[in-house]
Fold these 4 entries.
Entry 1:
Amino acid sequence: MNSAESSPRPGPRVGLFVTCLVDLFRPSVGFAAVKLLEDAGCTVEVPEAQTCCGQPAFNSGDRATTEALVRGLIDAFEGYDYVVAPSGSCAGMLRTHVPDLFEDDPATAARAKEFAGRCHELVSFLVDVLGVRAVPAQLERHATYHDSCAGLRELKIKRQPRLLLEGVAGLTVTEMKEPEVCCGFGGTFCVKYPQVSTKMVDNKAADIEGTGADLLLAGDLGCLMNMAGRLARRGSAVEVRHVAEVLAGELDAPPIGRPAGA
Amino acid sequence: MQPTSLAFQSKAAAALADPNLQTALGGIKTGWQRGRILAADRLPEFEQLRDQARDIKNHALANLDFYLEAFEARVLDAGGQVHWARDAAEARRIIQEICESAGAKTVTKSKSMIAEEIGLNDHLEAAGITPVETDLGEYIIQLRKEPPSHLVGPAVHLTKDQVADLFEQTHGLPRTDDPTELVGQARTVLRQKYLQADVGITGANFLIAETGSAITVTNEGNAELTQGLPKVHVVIASLEKVIPSMEDAFTLLRVLARSATGQEFSAYTTVMTGPKRQGDLDGPEQFHVVLLDNGRTGMIGSKFQDMLRCIRCGACMNNCPVYLAAGGHAYGWVYVGPMGSVLTPQFVGIESAHTLPNASTFCGRCEEVCPVRIPLPNLMRHWREEQFKRQLVPSTVRYGLGTWGFFARRPALYRLATRLAMGVLGRLGKKRGRFASLPLAEGWTVSRDLPAPQGRTFMQQWRQRQRSRP
């Protein structure tokens, strides 16, 4: 596991789990993740047979579809040293929930546990596993960071993104009053209970605006799209990006929900 | 109480439009939520205490039959009586019989969620017996003919002004909004009731197997007056309240008040063991314990066993962003917030309450603060599995999920479909970078713009990049 110190050996072979939202909505986050991993000495591959971590089915109570999807992922990521996702929510699914699946199938359950142990969220993987302490990024902006729930509570991601953001030249980070309170996304929750979800994301938007920051960062695209969507609807000028884009210095794509050249 | 949990969505919407309720709910954040954090910070061993609390409850549940029989034996030794009630109807009948044999016209009650669970007040009233709630919050909601909206603060949904209006109408005194005067008014009314009552009914936070005692905690001292003044005292408690020893109770008490209100200890901790003994200056002549099952033994060994650890502190709701937006009444039955979203389907059936385990983003804050570490989101997910199995998921959701699952299980087909869809959406959204409305996405776009996809999927671009790499 101490691959950072054993530099003469080739770096770990990482399978990137892109996540469905990054694949479909914001590929630039995926490329930022690849850059961060390669800069840290990893060999990055992207298995073709991946689609989704199964969370929408899992949280809708559909265990059969969940297990079918997870079986596919276990096969797709066979043999990689690590499986890394630019999302605390998807990584949380793979790392903390997958080991509890396949109750009636001990052979697959054993494979699932082994697979889960190799799964990591991107930023915590860089800091905790690879020992990265700083990235050579630069950005003259005033940002605030939202702790997405699954990353925070299932994977204990809190200090890792802050540590790396501290090292970004020119960047100031101001904490919200309640950075750990849910933004109201919750997957299908936001469309099942739109009024409650709106109230939650409104509280979050007010907290974000209260920091005076002009840039909102987080590690999960679902939450980011929810907050960006509400901030835009409120007419807020705060821009929204995935933390990996800032850390990788990959800022060519316009902020989430903004047109090119704006 | 007839469950109205299926109306969660519309009730939550109404709650969000009610400024009084939103003000009242805001007080939970600055009060109890903050209080818990400060109390936990002041106690270095708080996290270890939570582990101990969890372990005590787990041990008691694993040996429930043993500790219940021990408890019963000690109650009998102390001169009390134990009544076993399989369900709500049996518990109501037992309590009615105790009241009738005491010739009771009025009974005082200190706060009991089990009494709410079995609908005791309505039943007693129908039998010609007047129940009088003595907890201030319960007294208020009894006057308003409302169910509790919170485990610890049943009237937490009301502002001080609303209580001032209520008391002006009820007490016939000049209106005051001074909290001390309002409490004074209620106290004056209730003092008389304590002295008139023929039977006193209390709940129990814990039942102690080694001594046959019931323990309640209050901040008003009303449990003492309810159990000590009438001739007959009835404790109504559910089976899982039993724990081995007094020492265990004090470990649990150390996390209970801190988790609930941020107090180190509640103002009153009342230990009630048997009727008045020879030489005692006061106390009831009869001591009854009604032990309610109501489906709990069926939870033992099931996926929901962990829920039986619950000590009813309310921390899960105080910290739940959904509860704090929707308030307790939106949950439509006795138990509210995350713990209610797990318990209500258990008691009223998933078909009448499947909205509740879905009313969660699974943000995990409830589990994070639960003093006995109940994995509430996992338990809510188990109910969603049950809902899915029994085909209680709306057909549109089921169909959408099925279609998505069909493609997600077939990566090549999924690539093709998503490449086409994102290509179209990307072109449509290019100019503004987002959509203000989009067919089939109203649930999202009703209050948020939908960020447009960048156009070409990651997998599409990655494949191209691999080809162009040497």
Entry 2:
Amino acid sequence: MTFRDPRIEDELRHHIEERADRLVAEGVEPNQARRIAETAFGDAEAIGREISRIHDARRSPVGRLLDRVVADVGFALRQLRRSPGFALAATLTLGLGIGASASIFALVKAVVLDPLPYANAERLVLVNEISPTGVPFTVSDLNYRDFRERLEGVDRLSAFSRADYATSLDGQAVQVVSGMVTGDFFALFGGTPVRGRTFAEAESGATPAPVVVLSHDFWMERYGDAADVTGSTLLLDDVSHEIAGVMPDGWEPVEGVDVWTPLALAFDSRDNHDYTVLGRLADGTGLAGAEREIQAEAEALGREYPATNEGWSAQLVPLKEAWVGPERRQAGHVLLGAVALLLLMACASVSNLLLARASARGREMALRATLGAGRWRLVQQLLTESVLLAGIGAALGLVCAYLFLPVLQALSPPDTPRLDAAAVSGTVVLFAAGVALSAAVIFGLAPVLHVLRDALSARDGTRTTGGSGDRLRGALVAGQVALSLTLLIGAGALGRSFLALQQVDPGLPTERAVVVPLMMSGDRYTPAERRTTRDAIVAAVAGIPAVSAAGSTNVLPFSGMNTMVAVNVEGRPTEPGTAPFVRWRAVSPGFFDAAALSPLAGRTMEGSDYEEAGEPVVVLTEAMARLLFDDPRTAVGERVAMGWDGRNYRRVVGVVRDVEDRALEGAPPPVFFIPDPGVMPWVNLVVRFRPDVPAPTERALREAVWSVDPGLPVPSVESLGDRFEESVAGYGFNLLIVGSFAGVALVLALLGIYGLVLFSVERRTREIGVRIALGARPERVARLILGQGLRLAAVGIIVGIALSLGLSRFLQTLLYGVEATHPVHFVAPVLVLAVAALAATWAPAAKATRIAPREALVSE
Amino acid sequence: MPDESLAVLKGTLEFLALRTLAGHEELHGFEILDHIHRATQQELQVEEGALYPALHRMEKRGWLESRWGVSEKGRRARYYALTTDGRAALGEEEDRWARYVTAVGRLAPERGAGA
């Protein structure tokens, strides 16, 4: 095979064209002129080969290959320069498509695909104990010890818990978040300190050593760069801790941890499931094998300690999955899917542009085939053009990704972990290159097929009608309609879900209210001190003139945190595993007023309910009362107990309306409230402001807390409304992304329909002219053209509906309170598309009716 | 020169192209051929395409240089120009042609003048 420089063909073709022009100027009919010019020129193919040989004489095969590539790229570049409109449209479409894909990929990679930047991260597992009712729990200390001693398939089993300590900085109480861990935790995540040491396994446990290891951020913020602070001390809740070491920058297995301290494990309980337990699969052990082993051990523990462990099992969850969580993973997958649809859409658009140009270049291609370019040569050149387009698109796409990513990060739900880690990294560049190359193959294929047929039939002397090109373009446009409909349906469903969310009443009025999370940890207060301090703080805050009510709860509203327990009703004994498992909240005096929860039946809590001497009481939400007593009104006066063993009954004194304080997930959950007599270290103040006066300042709220206990950190004051918005921000983000993709896709699809129909009107000018000459009325002509556009749209719509139904189960995971397959999600987008398709076809149809028969007949 | 024994035509075409280019700053192939046709009053009956291997060969030898430009009609065309080497070569070729023509002239009977 001789490798030919397409510039040789260019030169020879130029000559033939000049000659033909000259002949035409002399009055020869154009087709005739071309034939004469070609004959006069001689055997163009042989001449081309001879010229190639002149140049190739001393070139090695590699050199020739290189020449050919350089020549092909130059040729492709010239082709693009020759039609700048096409080049601009194609590279911009690709650039935006690749840019959107790369930025979404960068985001999803950091947050979902690659959340653990540690060695052997894929072998890290989380241990859950599974209750007899199938609910996953963290692990109790004795069970942790036994698992650690007995399991062979899991190494370096480590326990983790979190504590918020108070310390002082510049005379002000500040909160320090501590990751309390057993010594092996550091090795589990490959943490080598940059200063000093970590602590050993023996330093945690029953008698933890008073040492602390600083995170890099904390070290930098508090002590400044490179200060050697090892050996000095840090006060945590008034207890002096020796600084043992400093961890490296970026070593952050748990987000937001300031310091690491040895975990105190009393080894005295099997049913307080307090510890997050992590480990690494041993070499040669798979997840399934290790899980079988831990299940067998859990069963063994059940036999050994039936009182606490009977019916309990255990599971291992890959840490990556556990820490990303199903919601984020599903959202990540749906966003990747949506951007893939958008990218396919962009490919179809570029393919369409290439096909349109291929038709325009039909003569050139035919001539080049005459000049002896073999069919593979033409294919090579076309593919070079596609790859070049994709290359420019990829470069443009990376620039776009670089610009889009900060916008995506700013729009993402603020609580998204590892959001900052998203970057246009080497992997993202590779991804973009891969995407561009696949895109080049996808959009380059149709023009190749078309040009091959056209060029070859031209060489064989058959007249080209462009039939194959029209069919291909029709299929592409129908595909575009299908893709854009799929995105529109998705965006519509997300939009309805978003609206549904706006109408949901969390039951906790969020306007004119703030939350102030406080941590009153065990080292600073006895329960009695904690209760008096807390009550004094609540009173001090409630005493601020602009505050109408204040109270506290153990779970910070809309933080995603939760506390759950089994309940049973007096006189209705249950078996382990059959009792309902529900949310509970321990609250201070004033909470119900601050939360604006008035009793629907009975009363809320009173001061006497907090006294040890009084009868234990409980307040139920409506859903809770309905769950236990069917009719909520009959609940008051009944007795219920936490757990299933019928001890420690509490009297139901009231029922309040339903409350959702976590994240909106569906029907309002059953919740019950108990008075907290000072046992809970988590004191999250809920403060409601008076509507008639300006809200108090953050400073005033902090001062009120510090007027009672100047050593208690007040890490934040947050608006309850903002917290609620944040908890549902993910829905808005998904809607925004899929919605804007759908918008872009719709525009591309309409441009596709418009372009194709217009093109076909131009091609059929003669036929239409004949029809008009034969007396066809304009409406008939218009109907003919409109019909063509609408047929395409109809095919696309049918395929799009099928595609949407196929993908609906993925979409469903992101929806709140609506069904992905609800007919409304289909009807509206189909109508939008149909009307838009009609509009896009209108102008070409109108143009067709204005074709003058005489001009049409002489146009060829 | 290894080609010297080849067909006269080839040498002739090269010579004619060199001479044409000597009178212009730069020309594309069709213009060169056009000039040759006019100069030879259409006597030279060759396949037009044959010019191109000649041009490329001379470029390879360093007699010509070429660039892509846009023709008067707005088409992309390859323009050729004579190099210094090419000018020297043309001088030699002209000498050779002069000798050739003289030789041929001696063989041919005189016509016209003085008859």
Entry 3:
Amino acid sequence: MARQTVLAAGGLIAVGVIAPLLPSYPLTLLTQALISAIFAMSLDILLGYTGLPSLGHAAYFGVAAYAVAILAVDARAGFVTCVVAGLVAAAGTAALFGLLAIRATGTYFLMITLALGMVVWGLAFRWVSMTKGDNGISGIPRPELALPWSLGAPLPFFYFTLAAAALAWLALGLLVRSPFGMSLKGIRESQSRMRSLGYNVWLHKYLSFIIAGVFAGFAGILWAYYNGFVSPVDVQLVTSVEALLMVALGGSGTLVGPAIGAALIVFLKNFVSVYTKRWLLILGAVYIGVILFAPRGLVGALRADAAPLPPAEG
Amino acid sequence: MTAEFWLTQAFNGVSYGALLFLLASGLSLIFGVMHIVNLAHGSYFMLGGYVGLSVVWRTGSFVAALACGALAVALIGVGMERLFLRRLPASQTLGQVLMTIGFALIFQDVALLVWGGDPYTIPAPAMLSGALRVGALHFPVYRVFIIAVAIVIGALLWLTLEGTRTGAVIRAAVDDAEMAQGVGINVPAVSLLVFALGAGLAALGGVIGGAFLGVYPGADFEVLPYAFVVVIVGGLGSLPGAMVGSLLVGLLDNFGKALFPELSYFTLFAPMALILALRPTGLFGRA
């Protein structure tokens, strides 16, 4: 087992142990960081492991979040129904979009995923009778589970999210170490070589696209419950790009990197906005600084097998 | 749905398409020469509008606003290209995306700092107000002006690209930058010129649009998807593609909003996704 994996597992446990000592504000930030970490890890399955730079990953996050919001608020549906519907919605959207996007490579893949992301944003923004448009859907209740603690309070919900994030991390970790995950890395390195070895490259990319979508949807479901509110902001272009930044900052081609990147961005956004109104300026400078000074990300700087950001031609 | 409705909507669509052409032609050329996916292109539009607004307030001259807006933003574009984007290898598409969105966020915040959060409208000159009457139809003069500007700019770009030595050099850089460099063309200088031109045209669109859509925070990310749709549909790096794409997007957007208000973005983006799926390089693009 890799040293990073042990360290990351230790980190998760340490966070879990000190959580009861924390006031509620840092606790909600940690919860938010965990959700973003799942989202960023799911994107890295595409970007870092398969070499497909998606510019519309917020679509699957958002579709699942909206599915939960609509079912939980309008239909008063239960937890299991909402989770299943959210995952199915994300998987279905990814399966459909993947058919259109997988044909393209490099810049064109970037463009088509951007366009498909905009389709979802357009629906969230304008399909007012379904999504309440720009106002968003508010009042999503926290899930009622057969637990002794109500998930309405910050601490139980933090543990709930921690368990979900650990589950997602475990599943994705098994995936990238499996023969399937290895073939994805092979496709990242050379599509033509994998093709001549007899691999069905299209199918591998397509499955990777759907799996990434499902895990993004998983993060979206948690987000809907955490935030209690879903709006077009959750599916907009900037949200997709922010996920790319998290992956790039932490280091693509690893799972620990994007998770660290996600946590850093969440904390940075919240802390900077406490001290100054100019946080957009600082966030913009972070984007530029990461690309200029740490193009392989933080983990990439420490580790040899992290993938550099994929080149234009896939 | 009378003939009047269709004619008025078609006219509005064409005039919006004309504005989009100013924005998207530059984006397309920049991509063609430098293969940069520039997410700060909408910011040029917004900054052009704000600079134009300040100039109109100071001088009262709309022409000065157009000139200063375009020039100031062209300089910003030059600075961005020269100092930052050029440091990235051309293959770093994702790096370019992140870097240009970083600039877009910075521009958004700077605009908020300098001009505040209130929406403004650039006052259009008196001679461009009012409407032309053709039978029962009214055509606002300002929209006719936008179409005229787009036709003039489009024709100038076309003549320059097809008829002059500079144009031939740009086309050579679009077709194969490495080969162009090999036969002695100064590709970095061409890139700089095209970047300045593209940023300036987007800013010109911003000033013209400022008297028509207004100047406000968020305009940058509002027009950006439109510019991308135009370029994607038309084909990256193609001027005829940008022309046809702008017209198509202007009409689709206008009819979409008029006929299916709830699905209006869907009616814009879904056909684009379909075109891309069938022709991944766009209508006029080459692989």
Entry 4:
Amino acid sequence: MVSLFKEKRILLVILLLLTIGLSNSWIYQFYQKNLLFGFLLIIETILLFLSSFYKNGKIIPILIFIILTIMSAILLIDHFDKNIFSVSTIESIQIRERRQYYANELGKVYKNRIGIFYFDHLSLYFNKINNNFSSAFDLNLFFSTGLSNKDGRYPLFSAPLFIIGFLSLLINIKTIPAIYFLIALGVNSFVSLDSKSGLLLMLPFVNLYIAIGLIKCLELMKGIILDYKKIL
Amino acid sequence: MSGIDERNNIRLQENLMNRTIQLFLLILILALASFLRFYKLESIPAGLHADGASQGYNAFSLLNTGKDRYGEPFPILFRSFGSYQPPLYTYLTIIPVAFFGNSPFSAYFISALSGVLLVLITYLFVLVLFNENRRKFVLALIAALTVATAPWSVLFSRLAVEANLGLLLFALSIPLFAYSLRKIQILPIASLVLGISTHAYYSERLIAIIFLPIFVFLFRNILLRKKKWVILAFLLFIITQIPHLLILQSGAFTRRLDQVSSFNNQLNNQSKILNIGKTIINNYLIYCSPKNLFFDSDINLGRTMPGLSAFYNWLIIPFLIGIRYLLKADKSLNFVKIIGLLLIITPISASLTGDFFYPLRTLNFLWVLTLIISLGLFQIYLLLRSNITKLFILGIFLSYSFFSLYISYFILFKYEKAENYGYAYMKLMDKLPEYNNKQIIIDLSRDPGIGIRIAYLKSYPPKKMQDQLRPQLKTPYYNNVINTDEIYEINNIEVKPWDFGDACRNNVIIVGDQLTIYSEQMKRHELKLEFQIPDLSGKVALFGYSTNPEGRCTLHPDL
């Protein structure tokens, strides 16, 4: 059983999560387009947080992964990155030029069916998937990308809070958020970044760790104030 | 008694054998580092960048006359193309120029050597920092191997960049600082080396000034017990800054910051302070972003190689493990404090500049990250019990890394970056002897380094060059206003921005790229195509035209 004090704290954190999740102009635009998805994102944020408190229950993890599956399915159906397996004109020019370089330098290692398939096709697909995958590690995509916050999804001041929160995850690895992060990374690899829906699955994770970062900062400040009072 | 002696003897022999193996492995890693940095250094990068040519020629000029190409005796900063290059790299380049002559290899030599020595210093640094760890030799070898094979280190060690030398000196000072916590007499030496590093690269000027007082503050309980050594350390550091202080007012010292600072356009902004703060945080995020460090490759010069980021992408896993190890370690431990301090202060210089993710300006930060990655790799090493598993995993990841590095650097970088290193202009030098009886005009509109590159590779007499360039200075040698429209005359070669009047000169060959002269202009001025110089990729990069003043110019002299 969770104590009354703990429940109050949980409610406060949920309020904090709602504030972080709803006060974001970018995500707000998305809610307007797809209310169901926005609702699921907020629910997922809260569930991810609750999973740290109710460790023994199975309902929360099951709910998390059901919602994650629904959101992943919606994203993959609506916004699958079709560019992964198609070759643009610029890319085909680059492939043509590089063919000559590989042939000059690698000789027979390149000039065979496996070599040509790897260098001309496989590495291209791999790079595109890698680009989508790695966008989840781009702090500037989540936070400000310039002096105006127009393109950033969260205000710049929340970036240090997220970093502090994420570092706390590294110290005490929470299984459910960690698994969620890895699955979201995998799905993200196949979602188009151009549609602005890429990285949506990451938002519950980011919301959660901004909140945790804020809580850690407040705890630290409280500790410093208490220490200071002791000295006085 | 004899039993104990025998056991001690066996332990001693085992230790000796372990040491021999460790030494052998270290030599192997150094050999690998040397191979990755010196292999085909003469031909990859294909050419010589303007800054490298400038350093090389200034070294050649100093060697022969004691003055740089403008006739300035032993400069504090080299005026170069207005970037006021820190001097140490150029002074040290005198040695390879004296031994190997005026070649791209000589210009790159100090950077490549710095890259190899950095591997050794990293090894020693780990030994000093983790001196109480039983497995410190393994950790030191892992760190040395990680630096030796890191894409950022290989890339920048093979360019004539002062930043690599700056990193070497900065990195050398850190184990000395760490060692000074055990032996305080080392502190002034560490401080002296740190001070010298500020003469090697721009970033160190700021980082060194921040590092020294914070280091002393962090370890005040140890260091302030013997204050005289601390005072001596500060004094020596200040002495090393005297040359900078001498030219502080001239504008030359801060000119590079003025060129690359991200705050230049914000001077009239009402919320200036807020914007500066936001820009610094934003830039800091750019340098801390794992996407930029482990995944993104950037085709622009000074960043990364095609298809490979600053680090191999799989290293993100040991990086996170290394961060976790640091966070969980006792915060009072020296290595936590030193690495933590370095992690926070090393991206500061780059954060003040406006360019998006520019690893060249933050090599110190990349080195610290490499140490953290090594800590992560060390944790993985400890997790694996079987030696066969360790060797198998090491083999797989090393093979993958070398394969990526070979494709990205030794193939793609070589061909796709040849244009940036003036490859075609170097090939042009093989062609020009055919036109010794003609005046050659090379258009320098798009590459300010053409003249100095030719002068360096042709070993043009420095005295003649000084007589040419000194009168062209429109401002004092140290100044924040620089004219970059210098004309070079090297025997029958004239390097200058071309104008249509040149088409009316007799017995002239005009050389330029496809933007210099359009086909319509060629027809109008009755220029005749004499030769074409292809780039390494086979595309025509330079065109040579002979003039025909008898025709068009006589009829229409205004053209």
